[in-house]
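Office hours follow-up: a student asked to see two folded examples consecutively, so here they are.
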Amino acid sequence: MDGARTFPRDFLWGSATASYQIEGAAAEDGRTPSIWDTYARTPGRVRNGDTGDIATDHYHRWREDVALMADLGLGAYRFSLAWPRIQPTGRGPAVQKGLDFYRRLVDELLAKGIKPVATLYHWDLPQEIEDGGGWPERVTAERFAEYAALAADALGDRVTTWTTLNEPWCSAFLGYGSGVHAPGRTDPVAALRAAHHLNLAHGMAVEALRDRLPTGGQCSVTLNIHHVRPLTDDPADADAVRRIDALANRVFTGPMLQGEYPEDLLKDTATLTDWSFVRDGDLRQINQPLDFLGVNYYTPTLVSEAGSTGSHTSDGHGNSSHSPWPAADKVAFHQPPGDTTAMGWAVDPTGLYDLLRRLASDFPRLPLVITENGAAFDDYAGPDGQVNDPGRIAYLRGHLAAVHQAIADGADVRGYFLWSLLDNFEWAHGYSKRFGTVYVDYPTGTRIPKASARWYSEVARTGVLPGA
């Protein structure tokens, strides 16, 4: 039996959500449609025709949700701002009613002793900006910087920790490559253009935040770094890893953290584009000093050269005949071994450990924060009204043990945000997948903390991970 593990005294314990997944109030107080409103309302895009029109109604139940966080002893809450709630057309002055919602939310968090961590963009681009070309166009990065300035001017006196983008890989490659995320486009060149302009938006936003935040304000970005493993020790499989690592990870870490795009990425994609959309000065602007790197991890990625031995499966990013991996048609994806979650994702904490060790080695002076980690299971409320989710507790215990071991082995990990606080709208899966540690009965909106919420609460309060 493993013994208890104690985390550093100042380790930050929190939970996370995203605006479109929980807020609802899709047309209230000046909010206009985002690309996810449009996508969800398009027949066949989202399971069961679900939308985020109501979601978990956090826009009206925010006080109840903050009380839940306080009851669970969370030290921090990572949430995202809805761009179309603050700046409905993506241009011009802010809507004060939209900003007031976030002011009230942040004030309540601070009153309860919970640190607010604000993400500027978690995928809900104003539809009007997409109508003008969206992320494949440079103007979107410029608009994003203006939006970042509005948000910082309004909330910078209350919020000291900011994240520019959440998982830009999903925005670029699932939104514009495979089309399984909004806006649902399927153009590999547009996906690469979107990746660059997301990088540029990040750099511009950090500049805007730095100009406005008080001394001590922190800036970060959250990346879903793929931990890519080869199926075999064949050199061809190692090259498959290299290709996917470039498209999944280094397309962002290269410009953001090192000021350059990887040469192998440019070479691999040369048949698609000459990257002439990268202008002089872009890479300097993208390469902004950060206070920490946000890391989202759920499961490892297993690849081989296409046609090698082993069952070829989906890459885990939705059903589409279009690939999210430009110029990587010679790569096959495989199901990693072991138990799986309700998403069909392999449960493998060693992937998180290996990932943290790699990041600590590649970027030794950059602190890390786990900004998302969690699992979906087929949860239900029993006859006694309780929701028991032992699979999620086991998942969290294993992954927190991996984080603890990574810290012991030299990784500078400063915090952990569990995904997610609430069951919510899970993008193209609608309401069919439950990631929350708090169960939501969607017809009534009733919140029921699951067994995992109480378990995680004890870990967050004590900083001690109990033995298995």
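And the second, which I mentioned at the end of office hours:
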Amino acid sequence: MLPDDQLGDTRELHVAWLEYYRQTVERKLEGLSDAELRSSRLPSGWSPLELLKHLVFMERRWLRWGYTAEPVDRPWGDSGGVDDAPWQLDAEDTLAGLLDQLRSGGQRTQEIVAGAELTSRGAVGGRFGADDEPPTLNWILFHVLQEYARHIGQLDIARELADGVTGE
């Protein structure tokens, strides 16, 4: 269900839309066979499961490793350890496991957002070095939202090509 159109608080809007997008990703992937989840019908070659893994790591990179400078294992784990490399799966990656990571990452994002000022800047020491001027939490949240929106659009196409399912 779409977030309440009466929400006016930016913090609540960020959290509500991020949760909506996470649920949309889950709905788009439900019902696909393992073969469809792991294969691509697109010239670029990415699979729906690779896209899901990218979203898990993308949110982790920006909020935990970026904004809070928490140490995270393999921040570029969705792309083999290299920024902007093609998305990759590990042998143990499954739909259920990655969806669990997506949900737990969403819970951690909500905790971070609840305890911070939107105008505060990301911490130095994780994604951002001493020579960087880290972005504000508000900017990071908008960036994460646009990543979800963009990739859900791509997932819409992949799902339609896989089995004809369209819509929310």
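Two things to take away from it. The chain has one domain: 21-163. The mean pLDDT is 95.
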